[in-house]
Amino acid sequence: MSPEDIPPGAPQAAEHAHGAFENAVDEVGDRWSLLIVWAAAHGTTRFDDFHRDLNVARNILSNRLRRLVDLGILEKRPVRDGARRMEYALTIKGMALRDVLGELMAWGRAWGRKFPAEVGAGAGARRS
């Protein structure tokens, strides 16, 4: 292939796509951020519930929640007017990740590691 065969803008388009992917990974590409967004999309709203449901260390959870709020993926608001307790909710930007998370879940079901209860489940495997 010669340089003349490459369509105009092709290298820039590839660089742009790489940059967009890199931006997405920078914002939500770590394990805990993705799991927090997943939990928020499925109704988890309070710090203690995230902590319990995800089994994440409190300091890591606090850091990730703060970061997701700073990025505009979650919003932090009082549970009710005048309350000191806070809850978290997905913003429009955060809700836009639901389809992506669904695709990751589908990929994980098809290609991810199998857990003991899933391995051989249809072949008479013992379950305890």
From TrEMBL:
Sequence ranges assigned to domain HTH hxlR-type in this UniProt record: 10-116
Entry keyword set: DNA-binding, Transcription, Transcription regulation
UniProt keyword Membrane present: no
Flavoprotein in keyword set: no
GO molecular function: DNA binding
Stored InterPro entries: HTH_HxlR, WH-like_DNA-bd_sf, WH_DNA-bd_sf
PANTHER family linked: TRANSCRIPTIONAL REGULATOR, MARR FAMILY, TRANSCRIPTIONAL REGULATORY PROTEIN
Protein name: Transcriptional regulator, HxlR family
The organism's taxonomic lineage, starting at the top: Bacteria, Pseudomonadati, Pseudomonadota, Alphaproteobacteria, Rhodobacterales
